[in-house]
Amino acid sequence: MSGVCGGARWVSVVRLENYRYADSVGMCSELFSREDVRKRVERELCLENSQTRTHWFWHILYGTKIL
Fold first, then answer.
1. Helix 37-49 and helix 2-24: axis angle, to 10°?
2. What is the C-alpha separation between 13 and 8, in angstroms, rounded?
3. Quick one: CA dihedral 27, 25, 16, 35, positive or negative?
4. Domain extents in the chain
């Protein structure tokens, strides 16, 4: 059971760090809008589906502040 929870935790770190980094480097910025809800939804989907680094392991290293 702890293996599944531990694996889910690392998957969450990878997803959150990928999203955070995509947002911080300005990916999907053309979809940014405070007024248009549809644009915000499109931007969220764009950020969630962006691939910002070459390997998931980099997200773990940056997400846990090792690098």
1. 120
2. 9
3. negative
4. 2-60
